[in-house]
Write a structure and sequence with these properties.
The chain starts with a helix and ends with a helix. The strands form 2 sheets. The protein has a 6-stranded mixed β-sheet with strand order 3-2-4-5-6-7. Strands 1-8 form a two-stranded antiparallel sheet. It folds into 2 domains: 145 residues, 2-Layer Sandwich (60s Ribosomal Protein L30, Chain: A), CATH 3.30.1330.90; 247 residues, Orthogonal Bundle (2-methylcitrate dehydratase PrpD). About 1% of the residues have low confidence. The chain contains 17 helices and 8 strands. Helix 3 packs across helix 17 and helix 12 runs antiparallel to helix 13. Strand 4 and strand 5 form a beta hairpin. The chain has 428 residues and is of the alpha+beta class.
Length: 428
Amino acid sequence: MLSNEKIKIFEDILCEELQVAMGCTEPIAIAYASAIARDALGARPEKIKISLSGNIIKNVKSVIVPSTGGMHGIESAVAAGVISGRCDLKLELLSVLTQHDVQAIEEYKSTCEIVLEELVSPCNFDLSIEARFGEKVAIVRISDYHTNVVKVSLNETDMTEKYRNEQVESGKSLKKADRTRLNVQDIVEFADTVDLSRIKPSLERQIEMNIAIAREGLTNDWGATIGKILYKNGEAPLKDKLKGYAAAGSDARMSGCELPVCIISGSGNQGITASVPVVIYAREHGISEEKMLRALIVSDLLTVHQKTGIGTLSAYCGAISAGVGAGAGICYLQGGGYREIAHTLVNAVAILSGTICDGAKPSCAAKIAMAVEAGYVGCEMAMCDKQFYGGDGIIQKGVENTIRNVGLLAREGMSETDKEIIKIMLGK
């Protein structure tokens, strides 16, 4: 039986992870930092130097920034954040921009000197902004995850606590719940037994928002329309419908759709991938809402569990972890318990581990489709009592050992791959 302490930790993790964001979270984090800089200065900066870790550069280079009329790139994210100025809205700060503001963003980009440099940091998610207005100098730093403000200063006067305190909702702590307490067996028991009352609002928001953007992707021509191609106007087999729905959400999101998404592991694409296939599968089979919510818990927490060892950003495509999580959630819907869910995870990892992340862009939708495919096949194997065994590649006996190996592969083994990807993308 899970202790009350562990139950609270798992609930806290879900509440912390299932946050709302509008647009790809890396450019939005840049916009957020830029809005803080404007707020600290009390004016729109005249000059900005922005320093970014390589993985952030990778994820901002090609993706469209919402509410900018189709603009993309780092300078657009900076300008959009400054023009918005609503740092109180965090990852939703661009939602207040209007069509009138698009011209203001263009004008600001042409008048403000924006200098970019790569930030050498042991943290794979790290950004710093130095903004100037007259004699005033504001410095903002966000590190480790997208809203973690670790430094704000104005002319060397520390203002960090002011902005860190603004992040905290009533009664919540700045300290994140300990993700290392997660393990597959406890996640399944938690999903089976937890009183849903505290976490149900977060799960319902995840369903509402992520299904809405998936439907938008299936309705209109966003990106390469991967979702529409797979969905085939609803005539596709169920497996392809699941892939199509999830891919369609990314089609829309990567191409500037202004609908918000409920993120997980700091990523909207991962939030969509972990949730949408589980919801569509449950609805197609007439499964109860409660069972669907408990399956979402399995998918969400297994996604976070895998990502804990990988890190916020890496060369390892995070959609794979979320697709694996979705496969486990579907396994739960099919009546699978700990044993089947553990085998689903191991099977899916064996199928598609090591897919590279080469930045946020329209082709993420296709990677999401393949991640959902791997999760689904892994589930089908497990429910037929078939599995891959320890010694098959990076698979090791025991699901926790395999998850640990994935973390090592992504964090250590692919670090040089990550550097090479960034060099290629920057034309070096």
